[in-house]
Amino acid sequence: MVWNPDQYLRFGDERSQPFHDLLHRVPVRSAGLVVDLGCGPGQLTATLAERFAGSTVIGVDSSPDMIAAAAPHEGPSVRFELADIRSWQPPAPVDVVVSNATLQWIDGHLDLLGHWLSFVPSGGWFAFQVPGNFSSPSHLGIAEQVASPRWRPHFDPEALERPRSAEPQAYLERLTEVGAEAQVWETTYYHVLQGPDPVLEWIRATALRPVLALLAGLGADEQAAFETELAERLRRAYPPGPHGTVFPFRRIFAVARRR
Ligand SMILES: C[S@@+](CC[C@H](N)C(=O)[O-])C[C@H]1O[C@@H](n2cnc3c(N)ncnc32)[C@H](O)[C@@H]1O
């Protein structure tokens, strides 16, 4: 799966706010080992070394492009590893496991929560955030268009990677079952985005990525036609206003402490 770090880093302020809000709720200031699962381009991972005094931070991501983009953020207490977080194992017990905007890409991630919680000893922390907006017009717009008569022949529904998250209560119940005391909550951010077709530009780095990857085989004209049609849909759903385009974005947070 191909990720484009430069495109992802557009809207960086809006994308990083939930990371900071998540970390704000982890009630420890120092740590030994901290791990960032699905660290992406690494600029947020690097802040963990300061957030947790005395810590060593390991960022893990399965995208070579993301790990290459993260390399400049390496330092004496921050390093990055190319690996799949479904099977990656930490080199030692972890004090804080963080995962921001990543678990939605992992099918069946609810069933892996206990695995990642097992990285921390009793009293350790596992904090994550996932989008909770999969029934928003941005996602439904992609799904409708892919299923429309014009485009359906080009998409094998089985081949299309679809991000998904569970509802907050499911995270709470699962974390409790696997041995954590958890706080789970949700927040809807009302981002005000600038520039033409900003919602299309936002999703181009995330939800639209798997669709664009499949369209790449059809050539530039078909890809442009798909994007033009989707841009119109998104403009109807998120009309530009006098101060920008309001893009509501629901997110789900969990901070769990292993019992
Ligand atoms: C939306 S980005 C989030 C990046 C970063 N955590 C942030 O908040 O900016 C999702 C990241 O998850 C990574 N990812 C997805 N599935 C993965 C897996 N199975 N193992 C490791 N990384 C994965 C992708 O490569 C991508 O960098």
What does this structure look like?
With 259 residues, this protein is of the alpha/beta class. The chain has a single domain (5-258), classed as Vaccinia Virus protein VP39 (Rossmann fold), CATH 3.40.50. Helix content is 36%, strand content 23%. The chain has ten helices and eight strands. Helix 6 (137-147) packs across helix 10 (220-237). The radius of gyration is 19 Å and the shape is globular. The two termini are 36 Å apart. The site of S-adenosylmethionine has 20 residues, from helix 2.
Brief descriptors of the model:
alpha/beta; 259 residues; binds S-adenosylmethionine; Rossmann fold; 10 helices; 8 strands
In short:
By secondary structure, the protein is α/β, with parallel strands linked by helices.
Number of helices: 10
Helix content: 25-40%
What is the number of strand segments? 8
CATH domain class: Alpha Beta
- Structural class, by secondary structure, is alpha/beta
What is the secondary structure topology, with strand pairs?
Layout: H1 5-9, H2 12-24, E1 33-37, H3 43-51, E2 56-61, H4 64-70, E3 78-82, E4 96-100, H5 113-117, E5 125-131, H6 137-147, H7 168-177, E6 180-193, H8 198-204, H9 209-215, H10 220-237, E7 240-241, E8 244-258
Parallel strand pairs: 1-2, 1-4, 2-3, 4-5
Antiparallel strand pairs: 5-8, 6-8, 7-8
